[in-house]
Design brief:
By secondary structure, the chain is an alpha/beta fold. The chain contains eleven helices and 14 strands.
Length: about 325
C-alpha cells in the first residue's frame, strides 16, 4: 500500500482552471450543431460565446476536473491546495472566490495575456448525459513558472489530470511537478480524464502510470482505450500487471478497485433522480482520495467514491 506522509497540505491538485457554464439542451440541438454527444471538445472563444447565447443556462460555477475533486476533498475537512491559471478578469475572480469559499488554497498570478479565463459550456441532454465544449483560454498557458514546488513538497499527495497534456508548456509544468513529488516523497494520483485524451497521449500516460503514479482513475471506456482492448477483463489484467492502484468507474454497475491480485467490486448506489452526470468521475475521485488520505482500506475508499458520485449526479453541476 502507498504510504502517505503527513504534511501541511493533505493534497494539492494541478489542473485546468475552468468556469463551468451548465445548460439544458435537447439532442436535436447537438445534432443540428454537429456536437459529439458525451464527449469533451476543445473550442475557440467564439464558439463558447455562440453556444452560451443560444442555450438555457441553469448554473455558472468555478470548475475544472481536478478543481472539482479538490473542492469536494476540502469539504471533507482535509487541507487542500490547487494550482491552475486564470486571468484577473470577472470569470477568473469568480473561480478564485469559489475555491476560497471552500478553504482551498489558491492565488491568481498576474498575467498580461490577452486570453480570457477558461470556461466550459456543459450541455446536459434529457438523459442526463453531459457534453462539454471547453475554451481553455489562459489555463492553457500554465508553465513551469506557475508550479509552486514548495506546495508540492508540503503536500501528502499530488493529483493530476490527463486534460493537461494537450499543450506543451503545461506538459512541461506537469513533468516538473512529478519530479518534485518524486523527490519529496509526495504520493501521485492521476486521472486519465477522457478517452480522446488517451487516444492522443497513450504512450505518455502509460509512462506516467508505470514510472510515477501510485493511484490511477479511469472509467470503463478510458481504461479499455489505454490498454487497447474491447474487453474490460483484459484491461483489468493489464492494470494488475502494473502493480499500481486503479479505481475504475463502471457507471450504473458501480466500480472496480484493482491492486495486484486484489480486485474489489463496488456495488452502485440506488439513484432516485438522475439529473446530470457532470462531475461524476471528479466526485468519485474525491470520495476515494478523501478516504485514502485517512485510511488504508481500498474497499472503504471505493464505497466513498461511488457514494459521492451518486450524490452529484442527482443535481446540476459538479459541486456539492
Amino acid at each position: 500500500m502507498v504510504k502517505v506522509k503527513k504534511r501541511n497540505f493533505d493534497i494539492v491538485g494541478i489542473g485546468n482552471a475552468i468556469v463551468d457554464v451548465i445548460a439544458e439542451v435537447d439532442d436535436s440541438y447537438l445534432e443540428k450543431n454537429k456536437i459529439n454527444k458525451g464527449a469533451m471538445s476543445l473550442v475557440e472563444y467564439s464558439i463558447v460565446s455562440k453556444i452560451g447565447s443560444e442555450v438555457k443556462v441553469v448554473n455558472t460555477i468555478s470548475g475544472g476536473s481536478v478543481a472539482n475533486s479538490i473542492v469536494c476533498i476540502a469539504q471533507q475537512n482535509l487541507k487542500t491546495a490547487f494550482i491552475g491559471k486564470v486571468k484577473n478578469d470577472t470569470m477568473g475572480v469568480k473561480f478564485a472566490k469559489g475555491l476560497e469559499k471552500q478553504n482551498v488554497y489558491f492565488k491568481i498570478n498576474q498575467s498580461s495575456s490577452d486570453k480570457n479565463t477558461g470556461r466550459c459550456i456543459i450541455l446536459v441532454s434529457p438523459d442526463a448525459e453531459r457534453t462539454m465544449n471547453t475554451y481553455l483560454g489562459i489555463s492553457q498557458e500554465l508553465t513551469e513558472q506557475d508550479i509552486d514546488s514548495r506546495i508540492i513538497e508540503e503536500s501528502s499527495m499530488l493529483y493530476l489530470e490527463g486534460y493537461l497534456w494537450d499543450l506543451d508548456n503545461a506538459k512541461k509544468a506537469i513533468k516538473k511537478s512529478i519530479e518534485t513529488a518524486s523527490k519529496s516523497g509526495t504520493a501521485i494520483a492521476f486521472s486519465i480524464s477522457d478517452q480522446f485524451c488517451v487516444d492522443r497521449f497513450r504512450d505518455e500516460f502509460l509512462e506516467i502510470i508505470i514510472n510515477y503514479a501510485d493511484i490511477v482513475f479511469a472509467n470503463e471506456s478510458e481504461i479499455k482505450s489505454l490498454f487497447e482492448t474491447n474487453e474490460l477483463e483484459n484491461a483489468v489484467k493489464e492494470c494488475q500487471n502494473t502493480g499500481k492502484i486503479f479505481a475504475v468507474t463502471l457507471g450504473e454497475n458501480g466500480a472496480k478497485i484493482i491492486k495486484n491480485n486484489e480486485i474489489i467490486d463496488i456495488n452502485p448506489e440506488k439513484i432516485q433522480n438522475l439529473v446530470d452526470t457532470t462531475g461524476a468521475g471528479d466526485l468519485f475521485a474525491a470520495g476515494f482520495l478523501s478516504k485514502f488520505l485517512t485510511s488504508n482500506n481500498l474497499e472503504v475508499c471505493g464505497h466513498e467514491g461511488v457514494k459521492m458520485a451518486s450524490i452529484i449526479i442527482q443535481k446540476f453541476g459538479a459541486r456539492l
